[in-house]
Request: fold
Amino acid sequence: MNDIVSVVQSYGIELRKIGKVYQGLCPFHKDTEPSFTVYPETNTFYCFGCGISGDLTRFIKLIDPTFHDQFKLDLSSLQHFVEHTSSRNYRSYLLVSSSKIFHEMFSTRPVGDVFKIMKKFDNFINNIKVISLSDATQTLNKLKSIGGKNER
Reply:
C-alpha cells in the first residue's frame, strides 16, 4: 500500500500529526486554518473546508491532472521516436524505456520513494547534453535494480 501522507507531503503540503490523522492547509482552495485531513489507515483524505475527498489516486489526479498521462505512450510519438532517433543521442530511448520502469515502480514501492527517484532521474537527464547507448543502458539497468520486478 502506498503511503498517502508521504505523497501529499511530496507536493509541498505541510502536514501535522494529530492523533491518528494528519492535518494541513488544503491545496484545493484558499485555506487559512488546517482543514485538510489525511487518514493514513485508510489512505484517504477529506477537506472540512471545501468538502473534497478521496483516496490516493484521486488526490494525485486532482493535484496533478497530467500525472497519469505521462505514462501513456502515444503511438504517433513512438513512431516519431523510431524515425528520428540519432545514433549519437539516446535521450528519447531512455525516456520511453524509463517511463515503463517508473510505471512498474508505482506498484512495487511507496509513491513518495518513486517521486524522489523520478526527481533524481529528471536532474540527471536534464544535465547531460548527449546520451550514448552505453549511458542509456547503464541508467536503465540502475533503475531496474532499484524498482524492477525482483524487488517485490
Notes: The chain is about 50% helix and 10% strand. The beta strands are 16-18, 21-24, 36-39, 44-47, 53-55. Residues 71-75 have pLDDT under 50 and may be disordered. The longest helix spans residues 91-108.
